[in-house]
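Long-time lurker. I teach an intro course on protein structure, and each term I like to show students one example going from raw sequence to a predicted 3D structure in token notation. This year I'd like something fresh instead of my usual example. Would anyone be willing to generate the tokens for the chain below so I can use it in lecture? Attribution to the forum is fine with me.
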Amino acid sequence: MQAPSLGLDTRANSFRQLLNLLISKLSSWSTCTEITGSPERSEIRERLREEQAPLIMPWGKAMGEFHGITEEMYRAIVAIVDDRLKGVRVSLEDFDRLSQAVAQLAAAQARTEATLERLAQAQARTEQRLEALAVRVDQLAEAQARTEQRLEALAARVDQLAQAQARTEERLTLLEAVVERLAESVHQLATQVGALAENIGYGLEDIARLVLPSYLKQRYGVKVERLERRLFHVDGQVIDVDLYAEGTRDQQRVVVVGEVKARIYGREVGQFQQLLEAVRPLVPAELLPLMFGYFIDLSAMEAAQGEILLIASYQPAVELPPSPAPPPQRRKRRSR
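-- Reply from a regular --
Happy to contribute to a lecture. Here you go:
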């Protein structure tokens, strides 16, 4: 047997190196820990094409002689390597799909991290708002405390007012009783004053009936027998005349009609003028109107205008400034 040439040894060594590389790479690919991708797989395929064909047929026998490997064993080894390469191809396809899934997971992880970052920012803003809200709640709590203090003060004030109101009601009750007593007293006083006024009035009328006949005769030349009260019925009403007398002056008949008032003002003169207008149609002769009282106001003199004789009770002794006697008023026929 001749020793192989240098070229055959070199090729055998190359084949051993390739076989060792394949075995190591197949082990690493089977565990999926050292896969680098498609470029390295392409390199292995190219080297297999270059080295496998020359070694299978021409040198299989020589390798069997030198290394104890028959041609059948070599072919079996090649078949095993092919089968392992098929498994490697399947594992690489799965790895591609796994890489895509991992890329998708990485993208989803990136989106999740971005979402978490936004959530973290939102949480930070929420915490800031919660802090501001807590400050506002503290302010509201302080305001509520001040409000409660003011309410307590107001409640105390209301209690004081209620007590004052109770005292006021008690005083009002007492005041009502006093007012009732005063009203009763005033009523009694009014009754007494009315009675006194009537007494004074009647007394004044008595004075007028006593002094006026002589006064009228001496002062105005009017002769009357006596003055008396007279009632006139006018349109269903009774008119009371304090002083009434029929007499003469200068041989002419006159009728004295008089009103007696303690104090005579312009208002009383106006009322007496209305009375005269009512009784004038019922008087049988010319009217001589007069008013007699304790006091005669200037307004009464202005209202009388010289048509009504005004006589004060003190006048028979101390007379007022002279004023002409009013002319007798002619009787007016009553219109029918």
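Some talking points for your students: Residues 6-115 form one domain. The chain has a mean pLDDT of 77.
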